[in-house]
What does this fold into?
Amino acid sequence: MLSRRKFLTTVGAVAAGTIIAGPVKAAIKANGKKIKLVLIGTGVRGNSFWGKRIIEKYGDIVQFVGLVDHNPGRLKYAAEYIGVDKKCGLYSNFEDMIKNENPDLAMVTTTDATHHTYIVKSLAAGVDVLTEKPMTTDEFKCQEILDAEEKYKRKVIVAFNYRWSPYNTKVKEMLDRGDIGDIVSVDFSWMLNTSHGASYFRRWHGQREHSGTLLVHKSTHHFDLINWWLDSEPKEVFAYGDLEFYGRNPKKKGVNCRNCDEKETCKFYWDITRSKDDYERYVLNEEHDGYIRDNCLFRPEINIYDKMNVNIKYANNVYVNYMLTTYSPWEGWRVAFNGTKGRIEAFMDVPYLNTETLSQEELHAAEMNQEGGTNANTKPIISHKLWGKQKTINVPYSRGGHGGGDIRLHDQVFLHPGKEDEFKHMAGTRDGAMSILIGVAARNSIETGEPIQIGSLTHLQPKSKRI
Ligand SMILES: NC(=O)c1ccc[n+]([C@@H]2O[C@H](COP(=O)([O-])OP(=O)(O)OC[C@H]3O[C@@H](n4cnc5c(N)ncnc54)[C@H](O)[C@@H]3O)[C@@H](O)[C@H]2O)c1
It folds into this structure.
């Protein structure tokens, strides 16, 4: 029989990506006790993916003992939406929650720039943490988290769901087994469209003080994929970035969509009242914190980049070329790995290479779907050996839930944390740091015009092979 202490140790082992014995489910059942969870940040991601879905799928082994959010209206809405039982405490601050509850795991799903506060407070209270990406938004907060983890001897899991999709895992498998020899360079482009891409500029994400810019908020996913695929750590970063398409526009009024007199003519007009959830979660709770979810894409407060190009030199001397655009006519991505024995190309939703016929709006809806998807399909990866023939590997694929990554991450954390993690999917603070630090370095490089050394940002020194 495993005690609660043993369960906490288990979470630590999972975060470190190590193999541990005995699934938590059995341990919890043997003890007759459920894992006690608190959710900090009750917005859409917390409500659905880390809330409702967890109760639906793992309700027999977990229970919510507390929800925390500084917006009391959203907190109340979340309690109903998730379906927590009456004993679950609703708190507008962490301190009251920790005084009353004794959670096993704190799940942090607040706005990006506030993650570190709750990660550090939870660790200090002796509680392990699962945090949404990005782990945090700057190098100083990052160092605070690293120090707290070491000081309080508790662990942090960073929820990098993109790693878990079968498609991205297949790329990892092919690279790891040396299909193209040693990797020498990578070309990675990510296109966001005028639905999903634009949505970042409506929300808090459009202000760097909340999101750290898309180089941190969004690219943390992409930089983590590269780090994981290459099995190495970034050493030096040089970048360009600018804001040209969205943001301050003297021809636009800059008020939110609901109050705008350009409803009939603006291509970006978005009616938040059409979604009951959005209306009840955000509009009805504006009075508490003033957060406007359907803000204008052309308001003067926007201070993030909308085009970004980044060059990364890895500690193992791989060169990476990365590009993120936010107003492409189509949304999708392409990555190509050059190796000493060949080239691998992987891509998603490039319209002229696609067999699916979803509109850009339907793709946006699928991307925002937090529940996981079904409509299974296959997606190709192209492998081409030097002087050899091109081969297509078709990988099973399901849309929604971030390419099937979301549900696999959940299962590993809650259902079988003891399962062997062959492809090192689970991520801890070092992975969380190495991905955001590329974005932070890119930001610093854009501001200074200089290349930035990753090793200058925190105490972490890049290793040529990930540990
Ligand atoms: N992994 C993924 O694919 C994925 C997808 C969506 C969102 N996310 C992440 O999830 C997190 C939440 O995103 P979201 O889309 O749900 O945003 P959201 O705006 O819907 O929710 C954020 C919530 O945090 C609360 N909050 C903000 N600051 C707070 C503070 N200081 N103390 C307490 N509560 C605070 C807000 O009131 C709000 O309820 C973000 O970090 C985001 O990057 C990850």
In short: Residues 1-9, 16-27 have pLDDT under 50 and may be disordered. The pocket of nicotinamide-adenine-dinucleotide is lined by residues 41-46, 69-71, 74, 109-112, 114, 132-133, 159, 161, 217, 402 (CB under 6 Å). The longest helix spans residues 429-448.
